């Protein structure tokens, strides 16, 4: 196995290990499963894909008195479960534009965008949910911040992911009433630091190899010049 492949494999393992814990949390935190979410309980997990959206609040049942925004949210959830992300996005956006607007709709928009692989758009939607939730809904803001960090990891922007995890931790530790998991932020930051250290080590190895190749070429050229050329 080449140095680059070994480092790359180690990086993926370190980066994605613990994704299931970041997905469901530890301790006594619980939640219901949203469309498109798979709940798995293990002691050690090595993920091969970006984590799915975290559990969502229980939605009210649909009746003639159910607000139109929540009807749209449930329609979006059904589409999400069927992996029809475009239809889900349309429904979630309908809820986001309702009167009054539904802040959590932006959170679900981000989840659907991430499921489509539109990471930058998802991050902006989670940021909108975080901003609108603010102190009025610190629990939703915490979930949005956590998803920002997870999405940065999914797009392999480790520097931004590290900052986002620290922001999530700060919010959780300054809002003790919410069911946050600041210890997960510590674990993810440590994993990112380890990956970045491996990357730096590989860069040093790559530079040494390049130096040796260049030196060998220079030596060969010098030897040819000393011996003369036809």
Description:
This protein is mainly alpha-helical and about 230 residues long. It has one domain (about 5-225): Tetratricopeptide repeat domain (Serine Threonine Protein Phosphatase 5, Tetratricopeptide repeat, Alpha Horseshoe). It is built from 9 helices and no strands. Helix 5 packs parallel to helix 7 (about 140-155).
**Range of helix content:** 55-70%
What ranges have pLDDT less than 50 throughout 5 or more consecutive residues? 1-33, 35-48
Distance between the termini: 41 Å
Shape: elongated
What's the number of helices? Answer: 9
Based on the structure given, which CATH architecture is correct? Alpha Horseshoe
Q: How do the helices and strands follow one another from N- to C-terminus? A: HHHHHHHHH
Number of strand segments: 0
- CATH topology: the name is Serine Threonine Protein Phosphatase 5, Tetratricopeptide repeat
Q: Can you say what the CATH homologous superfamily is? A: Tetratricopeptide repeat domain
Task: Give the mean pLDDT.
Answer: 76
> Can you tell me the number of structural domains?
1
User: Biggest sheet: strands, sense, closure?
Assistant: none
Structural class: mainly alpha
User: How much strand content do the residues show?
Assistant: under 5%
């Amino acid at each position: 196995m080449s140095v680059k492949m070994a480092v790359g494999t180690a990086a993926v393992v370190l980066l994605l290990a613990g994704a299931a814990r970041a997905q469901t949390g530890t301790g006594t935190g619980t939640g219901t499963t949203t469309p498109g979410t798979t709940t798995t309980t293990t002691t050690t997990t090595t993920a091969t894909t970006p984590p799915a959206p975290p559990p969502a609040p229980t939605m009210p049942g649909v009746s003639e008195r159910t607000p139109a925004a929540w009807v749209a949210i449930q329609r979006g959830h059904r589409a999400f479960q069927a992996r029809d992300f475009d239809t889900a996005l349309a429904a979630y956006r309908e809820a986001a534009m309702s009167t009054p607007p539904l802040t959590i709709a932006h959170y679900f928009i981000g989840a659907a965008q991430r499921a489509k692989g539109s990471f930058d758009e998802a991050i902006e939607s989670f940021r909108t949910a975080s901003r609108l939730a603010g102190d009025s809904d610190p629990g939703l803001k915490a979930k949005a911040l956590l998803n920002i960090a997870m999405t940065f990891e999914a797009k392999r922007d480790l520097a931004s992911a590290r900052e986002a995890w620290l922001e999530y931790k700060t919010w959780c530790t300054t809002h003790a009433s919410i069911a946050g998991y600041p210890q997960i932020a510590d674990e993810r930051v440590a994993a990112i630091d380890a990956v970045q250290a491996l990357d730096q080590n590989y860069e040093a190895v790559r530079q040494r190899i390049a130096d040796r190749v260049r030196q060998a070429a220079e030596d060969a050229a010098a030897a040819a010049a000393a011996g003369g050329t036809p």
